[in-house]
Amino acid sequence: MLGERLVRRTAIEARSAVELRRAGLLAPMPPREALQVARAFRERGQLGAAITAAALRHGERPAIQDELGSLTFAELDRRSDALASALFERGLRGDGTVGLLCRNHRGLLDGVFAAAKLRARLLLLNTDFAGPQLRDVCAREGVSVLIHDREYEQLVGEIEGGRLTEDMVEELIAANLGRRPPVQRGNGAVILLTSGTTGTPKGAPRGTAPTLHPLGALLSKVPYRAGESTYVAAPMFHGLGFTQAALAVMLGSTIVTHRRFVPERVLDRIDSDRPTGLVLVPVMLQRIVSLLEANPGRWSTDSLRVVFLSGAQLEAELVRRAHRAIGEKLYNFYGSTEVAWATFATPEDLREAPGTAGRPPFGTLVRLYDSDGRPAHDGPGRIFVGNGFQFEGYTGGGGKEMIDGLMSTGDVGHFDGSGRLFIDGRDDDMIISGGENVFPAEVEELLLTHEAVEEASVIGVADADFGQRLKAFVVLRDGHSPTEPEIQEFIKANLARYKVPREVVFLPELPRNPTGKVLKRELRAL
Question: Rounded to two decimals, what is the model's pTM?
Answer without folding.
Answer: 0.90
